[in-house]
């Protein structure tokens, strides 16, 4: 008769196999039973022979979070979505977008060169000045001021820096 750790290792191995085999479907059926030697067996196939204590188990799809966006960013963007009103205005507009990108903040860009978008900006601020940052529906900043914009984003709960990268940006590691 196998030792308890060996039986557990066998059990977990078979369970892992059953789960891996079932990942293609949302829900799979797995059978748990005792074999002729009294060992617990998990299988995705109906047992044959002298199976005892047969139980049917349901195995559901993977529930591991696979979203690359950090939770803090998702939470803040649901509560306070960021909109950048801009046009090709040079360094100020480029710096505004760069700040948002550097902090890893998802944002919508509204090009105010379009007449409809220009009207939205006029209703929002009363002026035709860009760039304009809107965080949620109440926080609005006209003109790029990095300190002021950073404070607004901090107040909304956005992280000060994006999550660490797991790979070097722009490097081709395959040729090494």
Write up what this structure looks like.
The strands form two sheets. Strands 5-4-6-7 form a four-stranded mixed sheet, sandwiched between helices. Mean pLDDT is 79; it is low at 167-176. It starts with a helix and ends in a 21-residue tail after the last helix. 34% of the residues lie in helices and 22% in strands. It has five helices and seven strands; from the N terminus they run H-E-E-E-H-E-H-E-H-E-E-H. It is of the alpha+beta class. Strand 6 and strand 7 (139-142) form a beta hairpin.
Task: Describe what is shown at a glance.
Helix content is 34%, strand content 22%. The protein has 176 residues and is of the alpha+beta class.
How many helices? The count is 5
Structure class: alpha+beta
Computed over alpha carbons, the radius of gyration is 28 Å
Helix-strand sequence? HEEEHEHEHEEH
The share of residues in helices is 25-40%
Terminus-to-terminus distance: 50 Å
Parts with pLDDT < 50 across at least 5 consecutive residues:
167-176
Number-wise, the strands total: 7
Q: Round the mean pLDDT to the nearest integer and report it.
A: 79
Principal-axes geometry comes out as rod-shaped
Q: What strand line-up does the widest sheet have?
A: 5-4-6-7
Query: Hey, roughly how much beta strand do the residues contain?
Result: 15-25%
Largest sheet: 4 strands, mixed
Write the layout of secondary structure elements.
Elements: H1 4-21, E1 27-34, E2 40-43, E3 52-60, H2 71-79, E4 82-86, H3 91-102, E5 107-111, H4 115-125, E6 132-135, E7 139-142, H5 146-155
Parallel strand pairs: 4-5
Antiparallel strand pairs: 1-2, 1-3, 4-6, 6-7
